[in-house]
């Protein structure tokens, strides 16, 4: 395959997967009772696919485009964009390690299911860790600066607990859904 053809495919695949991620980001719903600000959606799925097919850096591009377009269309929302920032942080924290581990495992000839499982566990640990760090260190000053809300003590730990549950559920669902999707992708597409 020529370099020009490879670049064209990269741009087309990135554009299509970004558009799909943007659309999916608008279909979110609360999953934790009482925490209506914590929404789950399937928008990280196209980013994971982009990372697996085109490389981990492409997953970051898809995540970034998804969040930027979402903010441009829906605005900053009641949290002044913190939800979108958090979505970007945990999305990248899941998709990049998942894609990197899967691609490395595929190159070493690891069978499909163990490769996806290892990738999913790595993504889960990364996503939960990034969520914990972000919610503990970024959320309090962000809410204080932009919303003039002091987030500390029991309220902070309740928010962190709810977000951690959401991140656990989301990463498990993403991994489970990736099993048949990666099975459908042929080796030629993955080596693109």
Automatic annotation (TrEMBL):
Keywords: Cell membrane, Membrane, Transmembrane, Transmembrane helix, Transport
Superkingdom field: Bacteria
Similarity section: Belongs to the prokaryotic riboflavin transporter (P-RFT) (TC 2.A.87) family.
Membrane topology: Multi-pass membrane protein
Pfam families: ECF_trnsprt
Bilayer-spanning residue ranges: 10-27, 47-73, 85-106, 112-138, 168-186
Name of the protein this chain belongs to: Riboflavin transporter
Signal sequence range: none
Organism: [Clostridium] cellulosi
Cellular compartment(s): Cell membrane
Function field: Probably a riboflavin-binding protein that interacts with the energy-coupling factor (ECF) ABC-transporter complex.
One GO CC term on file: plasma membrane
Chief location of this protein within or outside the cell: membrane
Gene3D superfamilies: 1.10.1760.20
GO MF term list: riboflavin transmembrane transporter activity
């Amino acid at each position: 395959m020529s370099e020009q053809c490879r670049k064209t495919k990269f741009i087309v695949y990135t554009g299509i997967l970004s558009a799909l991620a943007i659309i999916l980001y608008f279909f979110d719903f609360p999953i934790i009772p009482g925490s209506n600000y914590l929404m789950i959606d399937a928008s990280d799925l196209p980013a994971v696919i982009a990372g697996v097919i085109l490389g981990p850096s492409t997953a970051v591009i898809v995540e970034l485009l998804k969040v930027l377009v979402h903010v441009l269309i829906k605005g900053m929302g009641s949290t002044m964009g913190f939800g979108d920032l958090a979505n970007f942080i945990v999305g990248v924290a899941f998709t990049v390690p998942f894609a990197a581990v899967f691609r490395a495992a595929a190159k070493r000839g690891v069978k499909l299911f163990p490769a996806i499982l290892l990738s999913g566990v790595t993504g889960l640990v990364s996503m939960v860790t990034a969520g914990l760090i972000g919610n503990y260190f970024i959320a309090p000053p962000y809410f204080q600066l932009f919303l003039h809300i002091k987030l500390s003590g029991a309220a902070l730990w309740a928010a962190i607990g709810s977000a951690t549950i959401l991140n656990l559920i989301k990463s498990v669902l993403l991994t489970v859904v990736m099993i048949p999707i990666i099975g459908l992708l042929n080796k030629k597409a993955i080596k693109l």
